[in-house]
Amino acid sequence: MRYLALLLATAVLFADMSDDIDSYTTGSINGQGNWSSPKNDAVIEDVSSVGGKGQAIRIKPKFGIAQMMLPSGMDGVVTVSYSLRLATSDCKLIIQCIDSEKRASVFFYHDTGRKWGFNSSGAYHSVGDTTTPGTWTTVITVIDHAAKKFSVYLSAGGAVKPLVKERAFKDAAAKDLSGVTFMRNGQGDDDAIHIDTIRVTAGTFELKEASEAKDRLVFSVPSHPRHSLFSGNEQIAVSFELIRENPIADNIEWKVRDFRGATAAQGAADAAPEKVVTVNVSMPPLPAGYYAVHARVKSSGLRIARAGSRPDNFGTIGILPSVQTISASADDARFGMQGTAFVASGIWTNGDPFGPLYGMLGARWLNFMRQWSKLEPNNPGQFTPKLAFDGAARASEADYIVESDLTTLICINGLPQWAIDWPANVPRPAGAMNDQAYAPKDLSQYEAFLEKIGRESAARRSALWQQKKNYYQLQWEPDWHYKGTDEALVAMYKSAWRSLHAGDPDARVMGTGGGVLAKTVETLSRILPLGAGKYLDGIATHAYYVPFGDPNATNLGGKYISPEDGGLIRDMRRLRALMKRYLRPDAKLIQSEWGLDYRSSYRELDPALLALQAAYVIRGHIILLGEGCDTTFFFYLGDYGSLETHGEDGYGLMFNLTLPKPSFGPTHVAPKPVFMAAAAMTRVLEGTSTAGPLSTADGLHAYVFRRGDGFVTAVWASKDTGRSLTLGTGAEKTGIVDFMGNQSVSDSPGGTFVLTPEIYPVYVMTKTMPTLR
Description:
By secondary structure, the chain is an alpha+beta fold. 14% of the residues lie in helices and 34% in strands. The protein is built from nine helices and 44 strands. The chain is globular, with a radius of gyration of 29 Å. The protein starts with 10 loop residues before the first strand and ends with a strand.
């Protein structure tokens, strides 16, 4: 699914505020909503689809049909949008929009020789073709039932081209829309046709090309212009700046939707006939959570303009939860964060990069980089440790760690090129990624550097930080980089443990920093029997569950692999078993990077994907804590990358409103659902200790944590099954905190509480250890 407004770079599509009628999402055709595939002639295939999701419908050769049936009687203006990819210029495709009597209002096709064609009032016509075989093209068909006319537009490579404008229906008697079919007219030709991102929307539409689209509607939050986050008792106010070349007295209709898409508030405000006019709107109190603010200029249909990685058509605000957090010491804090934002100053690289967002989120830990490759890039001995700290200076980002009361994981991965034990017969590739390919060739030089790092870190902690220990992560995702032997790796850890403890008696050496959790388990399974456990004070790892190099295994998109289906529970239990066998009982386990991106580009984001991202990310971090992690890090604070090409799009907990510049360290951000759900989770689970999982039925999950003088149980379903779960609470009343941090009290007669878990976790608060009944 995609917004039609992904065309904004070259065109603007105005619409009323009606919802989708139906959409295609990657998955099975048969049994998915109103989709069907007669004779199974259309299938889902793993391809490099328009959004990088890895799946699309393939219409099989010779008259294959994929069909979506819609509610009968849809009239007015209806828009059908989809993306298609033709294998060759000779692929033949027929697209029909039919009414309840099987009459075609639209009969549109691609014929041999890269030509489009359509049937209007019974006559066939050919038009030019801008489709390039092998690339994705977005097709938008606007059907006006009142006028009995349709228009077709193509969008590809950043250009929009009208192919057919206001042509008469094929069958003048067609009166509504009840189905859309895609037919592969192969006539023996086996070339593939793929269809993706199908969406049907009802409303009043007008498509204007870029040269005409000069007006803008800009969303902002005057009281919090750089982050749009409110505390629970603040007055909520937003602004709409309307910029027009030909102003008239007008009206702005606005609507606020929660993360599920439900309307939370709505209204309208007058706009004066000025070229630039600001309309301020005060909203009613809203519960804690994420909200998308939609707005439409009544006369023109103009909607909110895109800002950075936030799509067109809406702005976002967040209401922070009022849940009372249980305080924790620096070492025992449960949540960390990767990523910075200069929203405090609003100036890139200037001022505090952590506040106020780290505090609003509830993240205490961060990665503090002290790599050998950076500190001694040319030769040994370049680095001189600093041993005196007074906390007064603000020379770098590191100084704000004290101000924000943050806890550090000191990352010392990365060797200088001169120090790597690179085999003589192996070519050395260019770039920094080879700085972890092999162990140091001279361990005495390695030890000398790390002993200095230990001394400096001990002095800094003693003078400035509230930590009891310093924690050192020795490698960073070695499963993707390390090519050396297990024996050399064990020797490296032995040297590191000895030298860091020599410089810092309170050092805690953490390994192996693997990127994929299963790979960390695999590596530890080999090196722990070789004696590596003697040189590990704890484990640091990332928690990605995508097998490296497997094109069919994706994070959030494609097959939409959940943490449960991705093996996160399984691999955490395997890891804990290894730690129990080989490491001492007080060994700390830190998950130092994990999150999920969209698996599609910023220009093709769908709101449903935002909600799914929130569900999966929160469930994943609860699993990590519930299965034995002491601390878990979010990845990443704000979106980064490119708006034009697909990369690691959407990892941010917040929209980066300044993307593409700056890509990292944004000065203006706005919350996504995942940020607000994470803020709820941190407030509930900070200061807790893990009691462990309850043994639940398949598809239901429950993890119990000790919280103050009571307990909290995080409960969810990996799929919406409608099954209920019964907890013994030991009290007649039970406290509930929902996914977004709203608190309530429910009856639990006889000390029994019954709930029907959803894919979004909720938190059940009890005085006694809960039981399953």
